[in-house]
Amino acid sequence: MSRKLLFVFSLLIAISMLATACGAKQTATTAPTGGEGPAPVQTVEVVRTVIVTVPVESTALPPEVIKPAGYGETLAAVKANGKVVCGVHTSLLGFGYLDENGKNVGFDIDFCRAVAAAVLGDPEAIEAVSITAADRGPVLQTGEVNMVTRNMTWTSKRDAEWGNFTWITFYDGQGFLVRKDSGIASMQDMDGATVCVTTGTTTEKNLATSFADAGLTYEAVTFEDTPSVYGAYVEGRCDVATSDKSQLAAARAGFVTPDDHVILPVTISKEPLTPAVPTGDDQWFDIVKTVIWGLINAEEYGITSANVEEMKASENSDIRSLLGVEGESDWGYTALGLSPDALANAITAVGNYGEIYDRYFGADGIAFQLDRGLNNLWTNGGLMYAPPIK
Amino acid sequence: MVGDETMRRKIPLWRDERVLKGVAQVISSLVILGALYWLIDNFIAITQQRGMPLTYGFLDEAAGFPIKESFIPYDSTMTFGRAVLVGLINTLVVSAAGIVFATVLGFVVGLMRLSTNWLISHIALAFIEFHRNIPLLVLLFLWYFGVFTKLPAVKDSIAIPGFIYINQRGFYLTWPHLAEGGVLFAATLVAGIILAVLAWSVLRHIREVRGKETYFGQISLAVLVLVPLIGWFVSGGKPVLLDAPVLKGFNFQGGLRLTTEFTALLIGLAMYTSAFIAEVIRSGIQAVRKGQIEAARAVGLRYSQILSLIIVPQALRVIIPPLISQYLNLTKNSSLALVIGYQELFAIGKVTINQAGRAVPVFILIMATYLAISLLTSVVLNIYNKRVQFIER
């Protein structure tokens, strides 16, 4: 009997301790002065109003230039880490893949390297994080990477929800890859066909709309990773594989018998491939954009990785400006927190836009050959037109 | 009261073990609750700061992506919510079918493992060790890319003409469809089955009670055949049409189709889980005391009778709890279908994340759904488990 009573006592004590603990927590969070016990409530409120009015006056006095929260944070973090973290593809020939030494290479990777060269002076100071198509949004939203450069289509919805899209590096469109002996030559021939597609892409949605618009039926077989899509297509699981034409060309080049497959001359969508950065840091957004502009303008001016030094002595002030020899904070590098020769470093490291393109897709390209087409400079009838660097 | 006072004086409060224990419990639970509160609060603050609010309004927006296999009507103009529902049903279908196959196969393999025949027992051992020691993901890749997509192309299907066609697009079976008046036939078929079961149990009970032969087997079989037969004639003689698959364009049309992805996932899941179930069955049977079997033999029961009357009922109480967790594992493992293109809950969830741009809410939805499925399964099976346990007096 007495034991039971003791237990009840201890329980009561425990409950009262719990209550005081909660009470203490509340007073700690609400009243900074810490009123003790059942002190009169009104006096506490008077003290509080006095405290509130003082800091308002003091912060209102100096009107400084307002920089949004997060401005400059990325650059500081990148400099502290000594590397630029990029979300990339590791199994798409030409755009983002591993070379025989296991090094991340590709058209998309070179833009990451260019940013690293501009910001840190070292094109190797990158950390390439392998992500799937479906991961691209989440890694941007969480700020897990500094930039995503993984053949990603720029759309208004993604821009609104994922992050900030910088500048189009590759103009692409969705097409269809079919076997030559399948007898498919147009959209209409594909009625009832089985189509292999990567899940979580714009292509999946384009496929649905274009077939519905044409009044055709189809069956989609979807996979999470790109190699599975083409693996299943080659095995004959699908009659058609669909994706951006550049990706189809890359996949076709990797087949055992590429000549048995053709890319149909049908384009069902616009796919502007664009590197993107997380939202919230306008400085970093501008840095990435400016680096891409620099590479495109360099091709226009004839600056290559080989002639950067001699071009610094050029008579053209636009060229000198781009290479950072023109003068005080010329192309905005001080505002961006970079060194004057940041763009010169980027060009030295990876070459101008044309050099990057030709490295992978040119006549002697290491990946496969792909006509420049829309990706030619505006002066050559293409769409590559970047704002001036000055 | 006086007694308590004296106790207090004897043992001070800070040295009373019971008080200390109580305080420790309260403090530790406060710490845990505090940490939990901090985590959730932090999570909500961050999602709001990042512009990823925890709202589910997007489920009413048009999904816009296709789903290959659906057991309810779906097309890409329907909503994300509908798409997730399609995924949930796909998960449930493949899990239910997988559980049935895994249980049957696991039972057979488990018994084979216990066989006194060296060859049979070692075949079972090899099967079990192969499946238990290779990751399921690898097995699924093997089944899908190594076996099913290597099947012949559509035009060269392996076929029993007019009945079954097997190719890399799937298994196409001739399947009955109800014709006009078919509903009546289906109703008599169901009624026949119910009546037959009823007749079986009632007549059998009468035999057990009175010890008089009631021919329960023959009578219930007759009911099972006769009642639907009447329905067959009443409904006009042709209540069921056999729908045979026919090659049209790129693919076979008609009949019942099991897609390559579904079949590969089903076989991979069922075989993988059956290896674990076989071990569960073996341990359950070995847990039945040898004396029980010897006693049954002494009474003169046949082996099949020993198995069904003595061993299995006693083994079940050991088998059921680990079996539940194998069923839950199978259901959860079905999410690996993502890599071989079967669109179940997780695969559709990932597409939804991408198309709707709402990672956090969708992940919470997926986790909550799997949790609900698992809890429901284990509640049902725990009720069954209570029934097979010994009633201790």
Give your account of this protein's structure.
The complex is a heterodimer of chains A (390) and B (393). Chain A contains 15 helices and 15 strands. Mean pLDDT of chain A is 84; it is low at 21-37 and 50-62. In chain A, strands 11-10-12-9-13 form a five-stranded mixed beta sheet, sandwiched between helices. Chain A starts with a helix and ends in a 29-residue tail after the last helix. Chain A folds into two domains: 73-171 and 273-380, 3-Layer(aba) Sandwich (D-Maltodextrin-Binding Protein, domain 2); 174-269, 3-Layer(aba) Sandwich (D-Maltodextrin-Binding Protein, domain 2), CATH 3.40.190. Chain A has 390 residues and is α/β, with parallel strands linked by helices. Chain B is α+β, with helices and mostly antiparallel strands. Among the domains of chain B are: 2-49; 80-129 and 270-388, Orthogonal Bundle (MetI-like fold), CATH 1.10.3720. Chain B contains twelve helices and eight strands. A four-stranded antiparallel beta sheet of chain B has the order 1-2-3-8. Chain B has a two-stranded antiparallel sheet with strand order 4-5. A two-stranded antiparallel sheet of chain B has the order 6-7. In chain B, strand 1 and strand 2 (164-167) form a beta hairpin. In chain B, helix 3 (80-113) packs antiparallel against helix 11, helix 6 packs antiparallel against helix 7 and helix 10 runs antiparallel to helix 12. The mean pLDDT of chain B is 86. The chains are: A alpha/beta (390), B alpha+beta (393). At the A-B interface, helix 1, helix 5, helix 6, helix 7 and strand 11 of A face helix 1, helix 2 and helix 11 of B.
Which helices and strands, and how do they pair?
The complex is a heterodimer of chains A (390) and B (393).
Chain A: H1 2-30, H2 41-60, H3 73-81, E1 84-88, E2 91-92, E3 96-98, E4 104-105, H4 107-120, E5 126-130, H5 136-142, E6 147-148, H6 156-161, E7 164-165, E8 170-172, E9 174-179, E10 193-198, H7 202-213, E11 218-223, H8 226-235, E12 240-244, H9 245-253, E13 261-263, E14 271-273, E15 276-277, H10 282-301, H11 308-311, H12 317-322, H13 333-336, H14 342-350, H15 353-361
Parallel strand pairs in A: 1-5, 1-6, 10-11, 10-12
Antiparallel strand pairs in A: 2-3, 3-4, 7-15, 8-14, 9-12, 9-13
Chain B: H1 2-10, H2 17-49, H3 80-113, H4 118-132, H5 136-147, E1 158-160, E2 164-167, E3 170-173, E4 175-178, H6 182-210, H7 216-234, E5 240-243, E6 246-248, E7 251-253, E8 256-259, H8 260-286, H9 290-299, H10 303-333, H11 345-356, H12 359-388
Helix pairs in contact in B: 3-4, 3-8, 3-11, 4-8, 5-8, 6-7, 8-10, 9-10, 10-12, 11-12
